[in-house]
Amino acid sequence: MSKLTKNQKLAAGKIEAGKAYSLNEAAKLLKEITFTKFDASVDIAVRLGVDPRKANQMVRGVVSLPHGTGKQVRVLVLVAPDTEIAAAAKEAGADYVGLDEYIDKIKGGWTDIDVIITMPSVMGKIGALGRVLGPRGLMPNPKSGTVTNEIGNAVREVKAGKIDFKVDKSGIIHTSVGKVSFTPEQIKDNAREFINTIIRLKPSSAKGTYLKSIHISSTMSAGIKIDPKSVDL
Question: Of 103, 73, 77, which Cα lies nearest the Cα of 88?
């Protein structure tokens, strides 16, 4: 077993074993136990009391984080170029706009993007990209707001901090809700909005405890357990 570094020992000494912290306490503590030289991401993992194998217990949704993600999100809009819609996408801040050219690039293995937005009328052309985009979570989906006729609005929302999430096969939803450079208040606000969105999406068929556990961490830091009762609706 490798020895703990000086910083790891300092971090471990600040976290009380077995304690479930309030969201407010955890947001402050997270900044104290993060020693990376880069601006680490703030990650949150929520374990749910659902069975993702059952269609009526699948939890999936979108949330607009009040303070954004802190990341530079690269957006590709797949629409016909030289149209008003393409112009609107560019004006809204899309990084790449086009259709056949980018479909060919993706078929060739290019996935240097974070979000793809398109229109219902274009999905027929994009269906063949499922094998490339699906495993990377890049396939546009109406449920996540990435298949829409309101292209400009969709781009602005994504750029402003809108993210989509889905429970995995283990019953856990994991995502990033900011950066360590954020203030504790900003981290708390983003985490609370994310958790409350999950609460609102509770399937009626889910029985027993819904929020089983919540942990927050930064890149390479230890996880901090959060008391679900400390998250106000």
Answer: 77
| The two structure tokens encoding residue 218 | 């930064």
pTM over 0.85: no
3 state SS of 138:
coil
Distance of CA 40 to the CA centre of its chain: 15
Q: What tokens appear for 64 in the block?
A: 């607009």
Neighbours of 104 (CB within 10 A): 10
Q: Are 158 and 68 in contact (CB under 8 A)?
A: no
- Bridge partners of residue 217, in order along the sequence: 43
Q: 42-92, pLDDT tens digit by residue?
A: 999 999 999 999 999 999 999 999 999 998 899 999 999 989 999 999 999
Angle at 74 between CA 69 and CA 76, to 5 degrees: 135
State whether residue 95 is helix, strand or coil: coil
Tokens representing 16?
């009380």
Sign of torsion over alpha carbons 55, 47, 214, 231: positive
Distance from C-alpha of 117 to C-alpha of 149, rounded to nearest angstrom:
10
CB atoms near residue 66 (< 10 Å)? 13
As a whole-number percent, the residues of the chain with pLDDT over 70 amount to 94
Question: Which ranges in the chain belong to alpha helices (H)?
Answer: 6-14, 23-32, 84-92, 100-107, 123-126, 130-133, 151-160, 184-200
Longest dimension (CA), the chain: 60
What is the chain's Cα-based Rg? 20
